[in-house]
Amino acid sequence: MPEDTADPPSRGPIDAEILDRIATHLARSDRFDDIQTRPAYAPNAVVADYDLGYFPDGVTRAYLRIRWFETDEFGIHYSEQHQTGNEWECRWDCHPNDHNTREHFHSPPDASTPGADADYSDDWRSVLTTVLADLDNRINAFRNE
Hints:
alpha+beta, seven-stranded antiparallel β-sheet, 2 helices, 145 residues
């Protein structure tokens, strides 16, 4: 999924302070190999690459891309890329749109729109806890295959 570097006017500017806190929080986890705050290819996001040791051999990359806005709207995109060229993706979103309520989830395997209406906490830590728990379930499922 190409990176959208423009901040839509309805979302407001990126909340750099929250993104820094998110990056610090993720750095405490063994899940991630690399965490970049606002890299050149995604200047409005934190990008956290998973340690591939958690995944089967066919997964070549797994990452989170997190955008958080001063309006407390957000977009959290998870993607797995496979040797076959396939991807497995989902998104947790909170923003005004024409396809769902403000808070919604785009389910795997393709994060298609429309998503399912959802209800998220107002606190970034709680949102991140929900996302990481969902992804832990995904990763643990690999062990049971």
